[in-house]
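re: ur question from earlier - yeah i can do the single chain one, its not a big deal. heres the input i used so u can compare w yours
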Amino acid sequence: MPKAIVVRQYGGPEELKLEDVMLAAAGPGQVRLRQGAVGVNFHDIYVRSGLYKTLGLPGVPGVEAAGIIEAVGPDVHGFAPGDRAAYVTQTYGAYADTRLIDAKHLIKVPDGIDDRTLAASLVKGLTALMLVAKLRPLTPRDTCLIYAAAGGVGLLLCQMARRIGARVIGVVGSKDKVERARSAGCDDVIVRTQEDVATQVMSLTKGRGVDIVYDSVGADTFEASLNVLALRGHLVNFGQSSGPVAPFAPARLAAKSNAVWRPILFHYLVDPAERQALADEYFAVLRTGEMKVESGAAFSLADASEAHRALESGATTGSIVLLP
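and the output i got, formated as tokens:
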């Protein structure tokens, strides 16, 4: 019988429980997908804890996975049994060994990229690509500040920024992550538990500040991020691992004509053609070797709670996956 991780009430990692689930035949527009690997993201933690109340309870969390199509329902076009596919979706349900999913959410996967690499990096890679290309495009003239530079998104974001030619200042949480961030393309690395980020950034930029801040930490770093912006600089808050940002007066931005963005990846994946094009661009740099995905720890589906504890600890590097 198929198995899935079910959340019946919001709370800690212990609320992630493996259960047998019933799976009907693929209906109209659906495929049955046997999943080879499932991605674990901070979004899943927000959903499990109840910070994001976007998963109906009881429900199966998880927004990304990759696998092989076992069966297709009526009115499915472009996919057939045996095809490889991946997805990123707000409909959740990824923490499972086999699932039904609407074909409209699927992304065609080329040969040469394995399921674990896809599950470890699809959300993160598409997020990084969205940040540098779809908002205020990053250019070789820019200096950017990237928080969590040794994390799942951070490592890819640093590589993309370096590939573009921007100057990259990375921020990490501990000294042992410095070299990892440097190897991903950081020109300079700040250990925020040992140094004042704002002071160091202003010193490194000779008082100018940075053009773009990519901040996935949120509450603990927002003030420093705002303070280090250069004239007409942009602060992109795309995560909140330390909690949501407190309300602030927009008039504060007027001092340097700054801008603050709060993008959500899913809003850039609504159109199927745009979603596939973004994915194809990401797949292309993976296949050429221009970007390296660092797969982190792998946990069995039954150990999803341990995977969440590891991610929440802040001690992980690379991208955690579940292997059904």
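The longest strand covers residues 30-39. not sure if urs matches, ping me
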